Each structure stands twice: as structure tokens, then as C-alpha cells.
Amino acid sequence: MRSDIAGVMNLSMLLESGPFWNVVLGICGVIMPLGGLILMGQELEEGNHELLLLTKLNRWAVVKGKFFILWSVSALSFVSLLPYVVVRYFIGGVELWQELMCGVSVLGCSAVICAGAIGASAFQHIGARIGMMLLFLGSAFVSTIIPLSASAMITKKMHEVLFQIFFNLNGLAAIFCFVVLGLTVARSRLRLVVHAYEVKPSWLVIGLLVFTPFVVGMCTVMTAGFAGFVGLIGMALVGMYVDVTPKAKKIQAPYQSTIASIPTSLSAMIPPAQTETVELSVEK
């Protein structure tokens, strides 16, 4: 990826923007989000998730709550460093658009790693957590670099506005996709009951992480390098609905159906003079 392109999730630009952004990325984008590797393990080992799911909270609410708390800590730490960004702009002579894209990229990396850490923390053994985190980061890196590189090569000769639109759409779609997939991994581990005819939900999500780069690559090729974000958004939607909690059918009380059927069934059998009497008795 070229470092002279100012866009969302352009890590080459971010790493070559000076030691300030390297330190910010390391602290707010990597170190603090990795604290999520211990979040879900406490819930699963102590059985607290079973009590949470007995309330009105669903599995999405549990994992989203943990994600927003962890990501908010990283975002607040980043906001505390914004005065240094302002000083760099007025004194250092840096470009405003590039600084803005660096800030969005740091927050995006933080969100992706937060979601991946929460998903990996849902596994009990430390080896499984490390393996899951490496798989998630590898899938995220490959699935992000493919559409961004293709978009940079294809749309660089276009008008600057069109280039920024396509490039940044791919970057934002990558953030959205892997935040959803990371939380889906954690959500799949909170499933209380898995039927005999069902595939284990966590295996399905691991399969999604493996096949996402291929799907994104195919979408990038089919759209001539412009719209790899279509595959990213599609895989995010698949991740949202791949593990659906089975719901029982709503049971209707027997007496309601019996009472409701009395006036219609008797109206054809009794004379009109007695219909009003039957209806009054039902209402009583």
C-alpha cells in the first residue's frame, strides 16, 4: 500500500506519519484493545452468562456492551491526545486531511482489535485464544489490503473526490465487517443449547473468517477493483445472521380459541332469535 495516499485504514500512511502516530497506534490501537482477551472468559468460566441470558438481555446485547466499554476506553485515551494533534497542525505544518485520516484509522484499528480480542476471549484455553486472535487478525489484514490496494490502483487516475469516496468506503466497510465478525465469534460462544442437527456455531464463524478474504477478493475482481466493500458488507450481514437463536412457537391458550369459535359455529345451527342469548352468555 502506498504511503502517500491519505485514506481510512491505510496503515502504510499511518506508520510513516511520524513517531507520534506510531505511539498513538501502539497504545490506543493495539495495547489497550488487547485487554479484551480476558473479558468473556470470566463470564463463561463463572457461569454469569447464563444468568444474563435469563434476563431481557440477548447475546448481542452482552457482547455489544463489552465492546463499547472497551472501545470507549481506547477512544477516550485517543481524545486526550488531540491537543498534540492541533499543535502538530499549527506548528509542524502537517496536512489536516492526512491527520484526520490517521485519527480515523487509529480508531478503526482499535475497534477491530477490540472486537477480535473479545471474540478470542470466549475460548477457554490460552492456546485457543492466541490461535483465534491470529486467525482473526490475518483474515482482517488480507481482507482489508485487497480492496484498498485495488481501489488505489484503479481510482487513482480519477477525480480526487471519486478516489476518496471509493477508497474510504472500502476502509470503513473493512472496519464494519470485522467488528461484526469479532463480536459474532463471542456471541456464538454464549449459545446455551446446540441441537444435535446443528453445526457448532463457533465453527461456522471460524469458517467465515477463513472464507472472507476469498469472497472479498472475488467481489473486488468482479467490480474491476472499485467496490470490494460490497463483499465486506455482505460477509458482515452473513455473520449477523449465521447464528440465529432458535425460538419456540407462540402458544395460544386453548380457552381463547374455544370461546372465539363458539359464536361462528353456533350461528349457522341455531335460529336467529337464540343467537343473541348465546353471545351474551359468552361475554359473561
Topology:
Blueprint: H1 11-15, H2 19-31, H3 39-46, H4 48-53, H5 59-79, H6 82-92, H7 96-121, H8 126-155, H9 160-189, H10 201-222, H11 229-241, H12 254-267, H13 272-283
Helix pairs in contact: 2-5, 2-7, 5-7, 5-9, 7-8, 7-9, 8-9, 8-10, 9-10, 9-11, 10-11, 12-13
Per DSSP, the total helix count is 13
The description of the largest β-sheet is: none
- Low-pLDDT stretches are 273-284
Q: What is the typical, i.e. mean, pLDDT? A: 79
Mass-distribution shape: globular
Overall domain count: 2
Give, in order, the helices and strands: HHHHHHHHHHHHH
Q: How many strands appear in the DSSP assignment?
A: 0
Helical residue percent band: over 70%
Counting helices, strands and paired strands, the structural category is mainly alpha
Radius of gyration: 27 Å
Strand content: under 5%
Write up what this structure looks like.
With 284 residues, the chain is an all-alpha fold. It is built from 13 helices and no strands. The chain has helices at 11-15, 19-31, 39-46, 48-53, 59-79, 82-92, 96-121, 126-155, 160-189, 201-222, 229-241, 254-267, 272-283. Helix 2 (19-31) runs parallel beside helix 7 (96-121) and helix 7 runs antiparallel to helix 8.
Feature tags:
single chain, 284 residues, mainly alpha, 2 domains, 74% helix, globular, disordered C terminus
Please provide a brief summary of the model:
This protein has helices spanning 11-15, 19-31, 39-46, 48-53, 59-79, 82-92, 96-121, 126-155, 160-189, 201-222, 229-241, 254-267, 272-283. With 284 residues, the chain is mostly helical.
